Amino acid sequence: MMRRKRLPRRRASSINFTEGPILKNVVRFASPLLLMNLIFQLYCVLDLIIVSNYCGTDAMAAVGATVYISQMISGLALGLATGCSVITAQAWGAGNYDRLYKTVHSGYATAFLVGTVLSAAGILLARPMLTFMGTPADVLADATSYLRVYLISILPVLVYNMGAGILRGVGDTRHPFLFMTIAVIFNLGLSFLFVGVFKWGIIGAAYAYVIAQFLSAVLVTASLMMSHEPFRLFLRDIGFHKDVLQPTIKLGVPAGLQSCVMSLSNVFVQSNINKFGKQAIAGLAAAGRLDGFVFVIINGLALTAMSFMSANIGAQKKERAKKGLIRIILFSIAVVFVHAVILLLFRYPLLRLFSDDHEVMRYASTAMFYVLIPYVLFAITEILGGTLRSAGQSVLPMVITIGMSGVRVVWILAVLPFFRTFDVLVMNYSVSWVFALIVYLVYFKRQGDRIFERQM
Fold first, then answer.
1. d(CA 383, CA 368)
2. Rounded CA gap, 320 and 19, in Å?
3. Model confidence, pTM
4. 100/111 Cα distance (integer angstroms)
5. pLDDT of 264-294, one tens digit each?
6. Within 10 A of 234 (CB to CB), how many other CB atoms are there?
7. What is the rounded (10 degree) CA torsion for 12, 14, 20, 21?
8. CB-count exposure of residue 349 (10 Å: 0-12, 13-18, 19+)
9. CB 176: neighbour CB atoms within 10 A?
10. Which class for 236: exposed (0-12), middle (13-18), buried (19 or more C-beta within 10 A)?
């Protein structure tokens, strides 16, 4: 039975992107989201520090060897949450509560189904994927055990992100921030207990992560169930609604495939990094944790841009959407550049928290040098791609991402054999971002105002 018509509309904890000062609302929306992402990344850093200090370089390398595989599988799942968030924001901006109700309950049905399937598939394929990547034999067993446990988390991660995406779609980033903070604190406590006290090794870190993700999924689901807003969740009503499922899949699957393809290219990159040995793997893992602070900032800004654009495109406020895009890009460039410079300046003392191994630090420092400042380019491409998805144009961002992945593969196959250095290998990231930015700018220049029209 559908109960949605009993619920009044209230905006106590939401930000209305269709009215008021653009940059002020963007900052208010983005601040909890960025802080949430930074707290989660801080957890990732501290968790790896715990692993490296209690378990050594081999364990650190084992964790690093699994990063891109877990991203590849979970990226496909999280793309569906992106689609749900866009449809939610459009329905909320247009005041269409029937569509909002259907989006919420279809989103949760999709999360449960896809999360279960991907978790099962990932667990079965963990060792074959690591073997295919050429993971060094001395870290393969630990990497396989870690990855199999870690991938159990795909189901709760998808449920949490689906719920958080719904809340972001109606302008609420405060509650996802609160739930993520609680889960991160809980996760760190469990990691120290399992790894430092019980001596379970990296498998303990994986179990801590899975338990914490189930907690975050429960918290966000309970919040939606207890809400008195039109986006309230009723467990008995969870099911698929064709009229919202189709546009959600139309947006979500390309976004998921985009993330999956990008991670697949990174798997190829990782297989080449593996050839440099476990110090290179450990070094890239440490660098990834640190430059991840900038990456999650970009992710938060892109989600903010997508929520802003979705609401205004849904409300048919084209000029406001155009002004907002420019201001968000300029704001993002400033934020990303400042954080990248700070991390570069302090990279050596920060890297010593992970390892005193000279080779590990050398590889990590090199990776950070070639990635951090070019992240500004990546930030612009993510915001432009999010803008297109907000208008229902999800195919082009996917195509551009496939092109980026192709550039990385071509770079490694065509350039790396002539220079065979770690420097040239990690340069593939910035080269691919230049390619993507050029394509986006050409498309936006040619399409003009048509981009800001809802196309679904």
1. 22
2. 9
3. 0.77
4. 17
5. 788 888 889 988 988 999 999 899 989 999 9
6. 16
7. 120
8. exposed
9. 24
10. exposed
